[in-house]
Amino acid sequence: MAWLNCPLIKMSDEAEISEGVISPAVEGRSTSNGGGSTDSSSNPENNNNNNNNNNNNNNNNNNNNNNSEPASTDLNSDRPQEERKDAEDYLPEEENLEKMILSTGIRVGTPVKTKYMTPFIVRANPEGLYILDISKTLSRIDVAAKFIGRSAISKVAVTSAREYGKTPVEKFCELTGATRILGRFMPGTFTNPSLPKYMEPEIVIVTDPQADQQAVIEATRAGVPVIAIANSDNVTSKVDLVIPANNRGRKALATVYWLLAREVLKKQGTIKLDSDMKMPIDDFETKLVEEIS
Asked: Model pTM?
């Protein structure tokens, strides 16, 4: 806040006079021996003496003003220091989180890009893989969390036909209360009321618009908005909200669903701060067979 560092400067008498703050004093009048009053301006010697005195006074005032420190610096010196300290405490945590997120490969796409995902791609790396814009990924996660927070969480269906998406979806639903649909999506789940597992969701979240194509089609037919984690090669013509991210990697999917769960919990009021998220990203990650054994 720039105004905190703006010094309060006291105007000198001449400045106050020019601004009309005070009226100029009537000087140079003395009582004569005859009891009358005469204007000293008629005496050149007096004028010179007065001018010299005024110049000396102004020089003294300027020296005093230069040597004095603005009052606002003393009054507000603690507050900027506290703000800088808060920023220093906050930035390292954010930087570490960003480094951790990037290390999961969340922004690494495929060698193919579609016209739908072009706005989310920043460049191609030397290996020919398209790199997704991580800032747009994080902003879309926040938007998705706000959207989910306005609905009944039990009416939010989360699907994943991909193996690496099953554990992240399970943990997300466990923490938030959403409904999971894992493995093969049964046709008619959103459109056929005679099925035993028929449901009428308010929002559908898919891990991959291609692998979860049947869920996207039925949600569209039922007029249900679709949120999709989409990679650079996905077609998202029937997706309402795209979260650009790597939807093929174990760590990347775990990170996306962890971030989304954290934001949803904050919108629900279950947690207040990011640090209140007790379940780490590793718990969202699908374990390999050799890791389990």
From this structure: 0.67
CA angle (98, 104, 108) in 5-degree steps: 100
Q: CA-to-CA distance for 263 and 147, rounded, in angstroms? A: 11
Q: Which amino acid is at 98?
A: E
Residue in the block written with tokens 């775990």? 254
> What does each C-alpha distance from 186 to 58, 140, 182, 210 come to in angstroms?
91, 28, 10, 15
For 78-106, b where at least 16 C-beta lie within 10 A, e where not — what string?
eeeeeeeeeeeeeeeeeeeeeeebeebbb
Tens digit of pLDDT for each residue in 98-138? 778 888 999 999 999 999 999 999 999 999 999 999 999 99
Count the neighbouring beta carbons within 10 Å of the beta carbon of residue 119.
Answer: 10
Distance separating the N- and C-terminal Cα atoms of the chain? 56
Return the residue matching tokens 């629900």.
268
Rg of the chain over all Cα atoms, to the nearest angstrom: 35
Residue-level pLDDT at 260: 97
DSSP readout, the chain? -GGGG----PPPHHHHHHHTSSPPP--SEEE-TTS-EEEGGG-HHHHHHHHHHHHHHHHHHHHHHHHSPPHHHHHHSHHHHHHHHHHHHHHHHHHHHHHHHHHTTTTB--S---TTTGGGEEEE-TTSPEEE-HHHHHHHHHHHHHHHHTS-GGGEEEEE-SGGGHHHHHHHHHHH-PEEEESSPPTTTTT-TTSTT----SEEEES-TTTTHHHHHHHHHTT--EEEEE-TT---TT-SEEEES-SS-HHHHHHHHHHHHHHHHHHHTS-SSGGG--S-GGGGSPPPHHHH-
Helix pair 134-149, 250-268: axis angle to 10 deg: 40
